[in-house]
Amino acid sequence: MVSVEIVKRYPGFTLDVRWTAEKSVVGLFGPSGAGKTLTLQCLAGLIRPDAGRIVVGDRVFFDADASIALSPQARRIGYVFQGYALFPHLTVEENVGFGLRDRSRGERARRSAEVIGRLGLVGLARRYPRELSGGQRQRVALGRAWSAGAGPRGDVLKIDLDSSICETYGLAKEGGSKFCYNHERGYHPMVAVAEDQVLHARLRGGPANSGRGAKSFLAETFARVREAGYEGSIVLRADSGFYNHHVTAACDRAGVAWSITAKMSPGLQKIIAGIPEEDWVPIPYFMEGAAVAETTYVPFATRRGARPVRLIVRRVPPTPGSQLALYVEYSYHPFITNRAGEMLALEADHRGHAEVENTIRDLKYGMGLNHLPSGRFGANGAWLAFNVMAHNLIRWAGAIALGNSEPMTTKTFRRRLVALPGRLARSGRRLTLHLPEHWPWESQFVGALALLRGIRLAV
Question: What is the pLDDT of residue 56?
Fold first, then answer.
């Protein structure tokens, strides 16, 4: 049993909470800035309330009237910090504008004010990170990186939703000891990716189907993108594993357009078979004879509010000599969408969803998700989060420092620009770093280092 009744006063904000929980798992819900992180910090002993009482089980952690205030070590509470590596000596305005130090003072002030307004932090520009809630710090951190040039480009942000199996070994993994759909033991994390940046990730047990939890996951993803300051249009692309009404409903509520690969069913096969031959438009494809056609279709027809949407189908002749060629003349690849636009352009864009596999490759093979080390589900979830942070930091560094050069995998970036040989030499009380001679990436490294020094992304 946990009983919390505390008051903590700050300039312009007073935390006054009172609640009791008897369950083993408790969630605190509320808008950004409501005091959720501050409440947890008071519970862990990191912040001392001005008044009130905190009791966990039969132990009194804090009692202002009785002058009881156990230290964090005596409370024996695990706490995951939500700091986001903001500069503690800089205000919100200075943190956001730190990546713009090469701009004029007027432009830096204008850009910082614009980002602060889009982040919903108006009125907090003069506050320091210690005076912000956890959610507000998250928005400041994202705003700092995005204002420096690491944010989405263009008027449309395309988010690719996918999942992947992370294989485990042995039977001592919480949530990862059962067989997945591919007959391997492991976890089944879900990720949302845009422009090779992981916007959101969630660890799930191995037996979870692809679409499990997608409704809440997408709501969190869209909210995170908006809170980070992106105001353009959003499009969700997903494969047939996420073909369900919960996904489309979550997109509709957030005002997000979508295109989702449809699962083949007898009813859908009849509709595709009824498309006139003259409606099929040939397209350039690696298999000669591929074509695309469009019709209308009512997905999830038994659900309330079902309505007709666009059904775009690509048909491809089977590989000559394959077993499939013995039974069918074409294989069909349909997807549903509520997007406006020309049929061929939408079909080609939907195929671009496959690019998410490059991000999953960088997250898994030779990197952190190649192995989930703990037997605890929560610890492996934190491992996934740290791996995503490292991936995004490398992508942000590449976007800011390397500009429009050809994209690099995570391993290539680390090999060329991070894990390079060198030695330190001291002469005249000065340290000098000696790097390899005739190094093919010297100019790229020096240019990238100069840009990143000007921004000082904190890790």
Answer: 87
